Amino acid sequence: MTTTTAPATAVGAPLLDVRGVTMRFGGLTAVNDVSMTVNQGEIVGLIGPNGAGKTTFFNCLTGLYVPTEGSVSYQGKVLPPKPHLVTQAGVARTFQNIRLFGNMTVLENVLVGRHTRTKEGLFSAILRGPGYHRAEAASRQRAMELLEFTGLAAKAEHLARNLPYGEQRKLEIARALASDPGLLLLDEPTAGMNPQETNAAEELVFAIRDLGIAILVIEHDMKFIFNLCDRTAVLVQGQKIVEGDKETVQNDERVITAYLGAPLETATSTDEQAEDAT
C-alpha cells in the first residue's frame, strides 16, 4: 500500500443514517440529539475534546448501548440493539482500548472475526464432515488474505500479545474486516502510535476505502483526521456543533473555543460519566 493522499472517490447513497440519537444514564445526557450520515465510498471523521461523548455514540451505533431516543439505520434498515446482529448486518468496529485475544495467534484472532460469515452449525463442528472442513479451509484462506492486506501475514503464527503496539492495531482492524463489513467504525486507530505507524495507518484506511468499505473514524490527531476524511463532525459535551469539510470545521469559532478548553456548560467528561453511570 503506497497511497499517501486521498484519491477522488464516487460518493454513493447513504449507508448509515443516524437520526436524533440521545443516550441518557440516569440524569446524565451523554449524547444529545445527534444526527449524521455516512455515504458509500466516504471516510467521515468524528472529533471532539476528551469526554465529548464520541465513544458513547459509537456504542449506540454498534448495539453496545440501546439509545434512549433516536434511530440507527444501515442500508435503510434499523439496526438491532445487539452487537453480534449489528456485525451480521454489515457494520464492524475496533475499540479505543485494544481488545485482542493475547494468548491466541494472529491468525486465530482473525478467524474469530470470521465466525459471523460461516454457516456451519454445532453438529457440523462436532461431526467434522466435508462441509465443515471446506468452511474451515475457506475461512483460513480469507484470514490469510486479510493478514497479507494488513502486512501481518509473516506473523500469522505469532501470539497476538507479542506483536508491537502498531501491529496489534492492524490486527484488530484485520479481525474487524474478517466479518466482510460494508461500514467500518474505527475508535482512535492511531492512539499511542509514533509518526511512522500513524502514516501506515493512514495508508491502510485509504486502502480499506478503496475496497468499497465506508469508514467512520474517531481520532484526536487533527492532521490525521483532516488528511483522511471527506467530512468531519464535531461533538462537544454530547452535542454535534458543526459538520463539514476541513476548512469549515477548522474555522468554526465553537470548535476553537472547545479545543482551547472553554466548555459550553461544564467541563465534566460525558464519556467518563457514562462509564460511571453504567
Short key terms for the protein model shown above:
single chain, 278 residues, alpha/beta, Rossmann fold, 2 domains, six-stranded mixed beta sheet, four-stranded antiparallel beta sheet, 11 helices, 10 strands, disordered N terminus, ABC_AA/LPS_Transport, transport
Question: Summarize this, please?
Answer:
The protein has 278 residues and is α/β, with parallel strands linked by helices. Helices cover 38% and strands 22% of the residues. It has two domains: 14-90 and 181-261, P-loop containing nucleotide triphosphate hydrolases (Rossmann fold), CATH 3.40.50.300; 102-178, no CATH class.
Structure report:
- There is one protein chain.
- 38% of the residues lie in helices and 22% in strands.
- The protein has 2 domains: 14-90 and 181-261, 3-Layer(aba) Sandwich (Rossmann fold); 102-178, no CATH class.
- A hairpin with a 2-residue loop joins β9 and β10.
- The strands form 2 sheets. Strands 6-7-8-3-9-10 form a 6-stranded mixed β-sheet, with helices on both faces. A 4-stranded antiparallel β-sheet has the order 2-1-4-5, covered by helices on one side.
- The protein is of the alpha/beta class.
- It has helices at 54-61, 83-89, 106-114, 122-127, 130-149, 165-177, 195-210, 222-228, 246-250, 253-259, 270-277; strands at residues 14-25, 28-39, 43-47, 69-74, 77-78, 91-93, 183-187, 214-218, 231-236, 239-244.
- It has 11 helices and 10 strands.
